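Lab notebook, bench 4. The sequencing result for the construct came back, and we need a structural model before the next group meeting so we can plan mutations. Quick request posted to the team channel:

Model the 3D structure of this chain.
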Amino acid sequence: MRNIDVTNYLADKKALVDAALRRSFGKNNPLFDIMYYSVDSGKRIRPILSIASYEANGGEDVESIMDVACGLELIHTYSLIHDDLPAMDDDDLRRGKPSLHKKYGEAVAILAGDGLFAYAFELMSRGEDRAHEKLAVVRAVSEAVGPAGVVYGQLLDIGRMERSPKTLRDIHLNKTARFIAVAVKAGAIMARAAQPKVERLYEAGLCLGMLFQYTDDILDIVGEKHALGKTPGKDEVSGKITAPAVYGLDGALFRARRYADLARQRFGALGADFDVFCQITDFVLRRTY
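Done. Here's the predicted structure in token form:
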């Protein structure tokens, strides 16, 4: 495996995405300013994964995928805005500041989320270059984030269903893993990778996405300072269907490591060019932020 400083790698790619997002919001329109309030922070995991996949598949012009990368971040941000609403998870804070509905009101937050969702597809489809690939990306992303993906996962999450392994997997798969996986897939499509490789990357991305949600669930219990640590937090028992609620903390940790192993195996089988994904997998497993 070719070692990289994954922290610096993520920071460098995040800086590229942040700059592109700022350029995309230079509009003389107050709604864009409101939308950017929620966009102007975040780890940029999904866009970074798309860029990493593009480059690992031989893509050389990063600017050619930047609109796709930004579109993925806008969809993610829209989902967070709606997820925070009182009718959903009712969260007052997001990304270290008041949630959008706490700052601007619920109606404006709904409209801002709607605007981000639509603007994302405008960005991903604009320009004449690589029109065939962009259409394929739009189709794949819309499937992953729509009623057979993220939206369905959110429905399951608010349903307060039975705490069973099947329910947990359905929530994690649809609400998080499909979106993570399609970000990896989008980069491969834009790099014009062969279809079998695109699908293999998507399957590997599903494992990474499941790992990502497991570590999120674990962080909610152990706290950011003890990520994958030893001391449970105060919310171990709640109405939410989480991995620790279903399996206990030790069981959730075990399954997180298992998904990490699967992700590394599947990315590693694609060759040395995809080592970066193995190292991102390790970073997600041990993340402390």
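The first helix runs from residue 6 to 24.
Will bring this to the meeting.
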